[in-house]
């Protein structure tokens, strides 16, 4: 799918991987909707890239219905939807203070997994009404998982479960949407230099990078964005999960 002139939507687009993706899409000519719970930051990014900003909780049906309506009004129904919104809560199943609070587990699942599904179901309903393009394609979804979906560390039970769910729903969604000409793919990044990791001391960053075979450094958000672009532009890529991790594998802890 070509990016130039195409309506796109990025959740979690106000920072980190989502911001890098929103900027890449806009630089390629796409009309970008930036969705994030941080309204001020989303507005700043949108203004800088010539897009529109909408404050929304991806796990809220009402928020996302309104957000999608706003993007449709501004740019038309999005053909490109990238889900980067997510959170992580580190906690053992049974820690020093007892079992992990159930609401902590549920919150991570709700934002990461339910939120991704919520965005997909609402956007796909709008996308199916669009006229088909080359090869009968109407649109493309790119979800964000994590290498933690495959070798989660101690303390990552909730996060790994949420990202594993995103990976698991990709193929059935791609199969269902095939008749509509809508593709679904996932990028599973390793350790990337996002704003959160920028706050760590340089020694801590180097320690994280030491376990990455090659290149021996943390990932750059622009490399994630480049992978999203590949997923969108390559019409034969469908139902796949791409690991983006420098050949690293997470250790138990």
What brief labels describe this structure?
globular; 253 residues; Rossmann fold; oxidoreductase activity; alpha/beta; KR_dom; Sc_DH/Rdtase_CS; 7-stranded parallel β-sheet; 9 helices; single chain; two-stranded antiparallel sheet; oxidoreductase
Description of the structure:
By secondary structure, the chain is an alpha/beta fold. It has a single domain, classed as Rossmann fold, CATH 3.40.50. The protein has 9 helices and 9 strands. Strand 2, helix 2 and strand 3 form a beta-alpha-beta unit. The chain is globular and about 55 Å long. The model has no long low-confidence stretch (mean pLDDT 95).
Secondary-structure topology with pairs:
Elements: E1 7-11, H1 16-27, E2 31-36, H2 39-49, E3 52-55, H3 61-75, E4 80-83, E5 94-95, E6 98-99, H4 102-127, E7 139-144, H5 148-151, H6 157-177, E8 182-189, H7 195-198, H8 202-209, H9 221-233, E9 241-244
Helix pairs in contact: 1-9, 3-4, 4-6
Give a concise summary.
The chain is of the alpha/beta class and 253 residues long. The protein is built from 9 helices and 9 strands.
């Amino acid at each position: 799918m070509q990016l130039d002139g195409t309506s796109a939507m990025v959740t979690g687009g106000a920072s980190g991987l989502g911001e890098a993706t929103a900027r890449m899409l806009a630089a390629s000519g796409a009309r970008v909707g930036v969705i994030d719970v941080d309204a001020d930051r989303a507005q700043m990014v949108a203004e800088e890239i010539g897009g529109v900003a909408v404050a929304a909780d991806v796990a809220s049906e009402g928020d996302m219905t309104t957000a999608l309506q706003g993007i449709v009004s501004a740019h038309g129904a999005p053909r490109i939807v990238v889900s980067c919104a997510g959170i992580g809560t580190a906690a053992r199943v049974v820690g020093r203070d007892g079992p992990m609070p159930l609401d902590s587990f549920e919150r991570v699942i709700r934002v990461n997994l339910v939120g991704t599904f919520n965005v997909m179901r609402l956007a796909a309903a709008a996308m199916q009404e669009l006229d088909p393009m080359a090869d009968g394609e109407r649109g493309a979804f790119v979800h964000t998982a994590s290498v933690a979906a495959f070798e989660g560390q101690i303390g990552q039970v909730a996060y790994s479960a949420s990202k594993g769910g995103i990976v698991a729903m990709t193929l059935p969604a791609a199969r269902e949407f095939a008749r509509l000409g809508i593709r679904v793919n996932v990028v599973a990044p390793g350790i990337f230099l996002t704003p959160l990791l920028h706050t760590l001391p340089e020694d801590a960053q180097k320690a994280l990078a030491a376990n990455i075979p090659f290149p021996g450094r943390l990932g750059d958000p622009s490399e994630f964005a480049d992978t999203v672009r590949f997923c969108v532009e390559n019409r034969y890529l469908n139902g796949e999960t791409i690991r983006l991790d420098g050949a690293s594998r997470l250790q138990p802890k």
